Amino acid sequence: MKNFQAGHLVDQGYYRSFQPNPINRAWQVEDMALIQLLGQADRALGKLDMYSEYIPNIDLFIHLHVVKEATQSSKIEGTQTNMEEALQEKEDIALDKRDDWEEVQNYVAAMNQAIARLQTLPWSARLIRETHKVLLQGVRGKHKQPGEFRQSQNWIGGASISDAVFVPPAHTSIAELIGDIELFVHNDAQHFPELLKIALVHYQFETIHPFLDGNGRVGRLLITLYLVDKGLLQRPVLYLSDFFERNRSLYYDNLTRVREKNDLLQWFKFFLVGIVETAKSGIVTFDHILKLQKEVDARIQALGSRAANAQKIMHYLYQRPLLDAAKAGAIAGISPASAYKLIADLERLDILKEITGGKRGKMYAFSAYLDLFKSPGTNE
Predict the structure, then answer these.
(1) How do residues 257-287 score in pLDDT, each as one tens digit?
(2) Cys staple from 241: which of 73, 204, 261, 346, with CB 3.0 to 4.6 Å?
(3) CA-CA-CA-CA torsion sign (169, 175, 181, 183)
(4) Number of structural domains found in the chain
(5) CATH number of residue 211's parent domain
(6) 210 plus 80 within the same structural domain
(7) How confident is the model over 85-112, as a mean pLDDT?
């Protein structure tokens, strides 16, 4: 990587765009510190993957992983929806917050659909476009060609293209550049460690900026898709947006450093640190989930004949840890009066907490579980 050249500037008249060099070529890793860090990342990811294989009903918990990813990835782009809001119904969201809420819901839908599509469609330009279409459907970017690579020039930062912080390549080269990424992803003839491969793909995708809107969210989403597609993860349980959000300045600085100083090594190190930290955090979260599940199951046994209905409620809460009495009644198949009584039981057992503070339209949260997914020291 010593002779790596990220690309060059192209004079477009009153501005200059950045033309990245192709990445589908032979690569060599020579830096010992990077090789050591790569080993740590491989082990951490492997441990997380193995751990997730032994968790009963892991699909119950994956939904909240996706919701956290959606809120954090969207937050990097300026969206303010938090996890509690993301779990609520649209009619419960204040009008001035609904645009943000809808963008987060689209991210969840895009991730879920893309993971499902991997059963029949490999990591590809087609998958990228399909995912982008879901992401922008019916939200603020809906007029910016959802599901289609851009047909005009875009830019990042600045009031106009002439004072932009960064101008991606001209739209006429997007098909070729994305094609190059696709060839690189599926190039088994040239060995390159998979984690470095997706780190390079993410950098290149963000540099190409192939869509008019949603590039950052799609680019981060593609990391998890790659890990699943390549078999590094059996289930989608690792998401890097929380790490990128907590280190937002470093995230952007390291991407920029590749383009301006050809320093790919620093970006690789930053990315691998994110893998290590996120994988370790994921294992801790799963540990806490299993411990909490055991404690809750023990408490619920005290409800006697109502324990079975309480278990139905808990099964729902592990996927969406927020509900009201009407939802509880529908889940358990019981009358409104019985639903209120069951909720009161779960409050008494310190499982549910009322979070709205009103007399009507009360909402209850499985707070102990929800808190496991929040970043340390934040309300997200």
Answers:
(1) 999 999 999 999 999 999 999 999 999 999 9
(2) 73
(3) negative
(4) 2
(5) 1.10.3290.10
(6) yes
(7) 89
Do 272 and 339 lie in one domain? The reply is no
Same structural domain for residues 269 and 124?
yes
Residue 144: the pLDDT is 80
Burial class from Cβ neighbours inside 10 Å (0-12, 13-18, 19+) for residue 40 reads middle
Using alpha carbons, select from 71, 92, 52, 100 the residue that is nearest to residue 287: 52
- The residue count for the chain: 380
For range 286-298, the mean pLDDT? 93
Asked whether the CA dihedral 368, 217, 221, 86 is positive or negative, the reply is positive
Three-class secondary structure of residue 10 per DSSP: strand
Residues 182, 289 share a domain: no
Roughly how many angstroms between the first and final C-alpha of the chain, as a whole number?
A: 38
> 133-181, pLDDT tens digit by residue?
999 998 776 678 899 999 999 999 888 998 999 999 999 999 999 999 9
DSSP-derived secondary structure for 246-288: HTHHHHHHHHHHHHHH--HHHHHHHHHHHHHHHHHHHHHHHHH
Is the pLDDT at 245 greater than 60, yes or no?
A: yes
On whether both 32 and 127 belong to a single domain, the answer is yes
User: How far apart are the C-alpha atoms of 278 and 300, rounded to whole Å?
Assistant: 32
Q: Which of 212, 205, 274 is nearest to 238 (CA)?
A: 274
State the residue range of the domain holding 210: 7-282
What distance in Å separates the CA atoms of residue 380 and residue 373, rounded to the nearest whole number? 8
Max Cα distance, the chain (Å): 77
